[in-house]
Each structure stands twice: as C-alpha cells, then as structure tokens.
Amino acid sequence: MRHHVILRVIAKLGIPFIVLFALYVQFHGDFGPGGGFQAGVIFGAAFILYALIFGLDNALKVAPMNLVITFIAVGLLVFAGVGVARQVSRLRRARRQFRRRTASRHPARRARSRDHGRRGHDRDLLHLRGPGPVAVEFLIGHYNYWIFIFLMMLGFYVVVARGNLVKKIIGLNIFQASVFLLYISIGKVLGGTAPIIIDGGGPVTYSNPLPHVLILTAIVVGVATTALGLSLVIRINEAYGTIEEDEINDMDQEP
Amino acid sequence: MAFLVIIALAIMRLRNLFGVVMLSGIYSLLMASVFVILDAVDVAFTEAAVGAGISTILMLGTLALTTSREKVPMHTPLLPLVVTFVTGAMLVYGTWDMPAFGDAAAPPNQHVAPYYLERSLAETGVPNVVTAVLASYRGYDTLGELTVIFTAGIGVLLLLGRRREKAATKPEAGDGGS
Fold first, then answer.
1. Chain A residues with beta carbon closer than 8 angstroms to that of B170
2. Can you give the CATH number for the domain in which A211 is found?
3. Long-range contacts of range A170-176, CB-CB < 8 Å, 24 or more positions apart?
4. Which of B66, B80, B102 sits opposite A160 (nearest CB)?
5. What is the C-alpha to C-alpha distance for residues B7 and A134, in angstroms, rounded to an integer?
6. Distance (Å, rounded) from C-alpha A11 to C-alpha A52?
7. Which residues on chain A are in Cβ contact (under 8 Å) with B80?
8. N or C: which end of chain B has fewer CB within 10 A?
9. Chain A window 72-91: which residues touch B at a Cβ cutoff of 8 Å?
10. Above 60 in pLDDT, residue A132?
11. Is the dihedral of CA B139, B144, B149, B154 positive or negative?
C-alpha cells in the first residue's frame, strides 16, 4: 500500500485529526460520552492506520517496541498508583474529619431512610400489579430477552459446531455481545435518558448507569481476550499449518 | 434488532472468512446503535471504537497471516444443535421471572443505581455518571480490567514477539548456509 498516493495523502491529513479527537474524548469524558478507554482505542487506531499505510517499519520508528512495552506497564502502574495515593490521602483526611462528621450525620441519615420508604412503596405497587399479567404486555416486556437468547445460542452453536478457529472466536464474540445487550436492556428505563446529569431543568429520569459501567469493562476485556485468542490462532496456524479443528485433531492422533 | 439476528445468521452460514469479519464489524456497529437507543451512549462509543474498529482490524490481521476460507466440517452438527436448543429452552424458561423491559421499579434499577444518580455529581463533580462510577465508585473493577488487558498484552507479545525474532534470525541462518 506504500504506493497509493491518495491513501497516503488522506492518511497524513486524517491522522492528526484522529489524534486530536482522541485527546478531546480523553479530556471531555467527564461531561459527555467517552473517556480513557475510548480515547486510547482511537489513539491506537491512528497508530494502526499509520502502520497500515506507511508500513510497519516506519510505525516502529515512531513507536519502538521497547517503548510500547514500557508504556503498557507504566499505564497499569499509574492507574494503580492513583488509587493507592488516593486511598492514603483519604485515610489521612478521614482520620482528621472523623469527629467533625459525627455531629452532622443524623439529618442525612433521616433523609436517606425517607427515600427508602418511598422506594419500598413503589415495589409494593409492582407486586399488586404482578399476579395477573396480560399476555400481550408480557410479550412486549420480554421479547428482548428472547432475542438475546436467540443470539446467544447462535453464538454458542457457532462455537460448538464450527471447526474453524477464527469462526469460533467470532461466535464467542456474538455470545458475548448478547450478554452485553441483556445487561444494557435491563438498565434501560422507559422514558429515561442517558445518565449524564443535566444542570437545572427539573426532575429527569435517567437510565441505570451501573450496567453501562459493567459492560464498558466487559467490552474492553472482551477485545483483550479476542486479541489473545487470535494470536493463539496465528501460533496454531504456524505449528500445524491449519486453523481447522478437525485437521488439528487428526494431526495430534497420528504420531 | 431484527438486523442483528439476520447478520448473526449470515455470519453462521458464510464460509468466506473475510466476509464474516466484515459482517461482524457491521454487527458491532448495529449493536452500538442499539446501545444508543437504550441510552447507553458510553457503551455505544466503546462498542463502535472497539468492536467495529479494533476487533475487525485484529481479525483481518489474523486472516492475513492464516487463511480466509473455512472448510466444511466433517462431522454432523446434530449434537451441538440439540445442546443449543436445550440450553436456549432453559434460558427462555428462566425469563418468566425477569422484570419487564424498561421497568423503573425492577430490582436492578433499585439497588445502588439511584444512589449513584443522586450523589455522584456532588461527590465526584463529574456530570457523566458512567465515568464517575467507572473511575470512582468501582475503581477496583477498572484496575482489574487494566490488569486483564495488561496480561493479554503480555500474552500477545510473548506469543507473537518470539515468532518475529525467529523470523528475523531465519534469513541470517539461510545466508550463512549458502
């Protein structure tokens, strides 16, 4: 691809913007969708694009292997280090504030218990409605689960029945994706909006942010395992010359 | 969502792995749009970047290094089919007890989520609740996640890095022989 002028020019023009967008996502993550992971991925995509267009050797000149390895380790240490430093400072501050806080705690606790009572009331209402569910209502309320189960079983089937290792990994991804969808759909509240707090403007219903967080983590872990699986596939292909499970089994039986 | 099912079916049927990888990229992008509809903008962003972007590139890289044709499996897929159907039926049976879609009073929406929604702005000063929970309340999860990525990165480097060294030394050995 080194000789395609259009590709090279457009990539040269585009990569700075990709990097800029990544930085924007990184530092704007507090206020809108986005954050460190997405920014990192976009950043990485810029590098991969560079490597694709200008060749791996040039990309390695920009980001040498040792630097990459060091960055991986440093990144983890920085994250852990921030946590440790925060805990240490919090412990110190907590000790200082302990006495001051005990005086002001009681009103807050009362407010929380009042909240709890209201929530309990909602739950009672649900139970009253529970015993006689209309069939159509039930269908509309649950068909999403069935779609996810269908997708999940499709992925499961691909993993079990297909012999090709790459296909198996894709099946695993479909399986995973159905679980993501399940979690996110559980967190959806009808009439709700994305959980980004809007200043002022009365009471707003937000969807549940917790599944979003869990799935965010799961997606990133998922791509990490995919990468590991694919590199295993490459190694297997080198060792056996095939990525079909049946042929690998046959080869293992022969000697 | 019907599109998702259709594409998943196509992925299963198709034997040209290049097409399969492209379809899985589209699948991820569709999933991202479903996430937007379900109010999960952060997740949609991640899915679009990670699922549709990086995964597809990784898969393509693998295909470039291996082969892009899938062979017809030799054994009949009867047993997997039965296993799949039984598992699926059990899961469908499990959904009878699930809360209806979009129910604000469902147990998952009543546990700690209201606390996060009410307090996170005051406690962390971050309007995006997902970011606040990810980085502050559940920071240990994220630390564990980074550890997983770290481990995966080391694994990939170990698996593929050695190969490159071997490939680099091989031509030299060939030169010495000639």
1. none
2. 1.10.287.3510
3. A170/B11, A170/B20, A170/B21, A170/B24, A170/B59, A171/B12, A172/A226, A172/A229, A173/A222, A173/A226, A173/B24, A173/B51, A173/B55, A174/B8, A174/B11, A174/B24, A174/B27, A176/A218, A176/A222
4. B80
5. 32
6. 10
7. 157, 160-161
8. C
9. 72-73, 75-76, 79-80, 83
10. no
11. positive
B33-63 tens-digit pLDDT:
877 777 777 777 777 777 777 788 778 777 7
Confidence band, pLDDT 50/70/90 cuts, at residue B163: low
Of the candidates B93, B7, B117, which has an alpha carbon nearest to the alpha carbon of residue B52? B7
Q: Do the beta carbons of residue A144 and residue B79 sit within 8 Å?
A: no
pTM, 2 dp: 0.66
The tens digit of pLDDT for each residue in A25-35 reads 777 665 656 56
Could you give phi then psi for residue A203, rounded to 5 degrees? -75, 130
Residue A213 belongs to some domain of the structure: yes
What is the domain extent for residue A156? Answer: 137-255
Strands (E), chain B: none
Structure tokens at A130: 């529970």
Query: Using the 8-state DSSP alphabet, how is residue A34 labeled?
Result: -
User: Average pLDDT of chain A?
Assistant: 70
Question: Is A180 in the B-facing interface, judged by CB distances under 8 Å?
Answer: yes
Within a domain: A201: yes
Round to whole Å and give the CA distance between B48 and A38.
9
Residue A63 lies in a domain: no
Whether the CB-CB separation of A230 and B57 falls below 8 Å is answered with no
Q: What is the pLDDT of residue B61?
A: 78
A242 within some domain: yes
- ipTM for the predicted complex comes to 0.72
> Nearest Cβ partner of B38 from A32, A65, A188?
A188
Number of domains in chain A: 1
d(CA A121, CA B11): 47
Instruction: Specify the 3-state DSSP secondary structure of A64.
Output: coil
For residue range A81-124, list pLDDT tens digits in order: 776 776 777 777 777 766 555 555 444 444 444 444 444 444 44
Contacts of B147 in chain A (CB under 8 A): 76
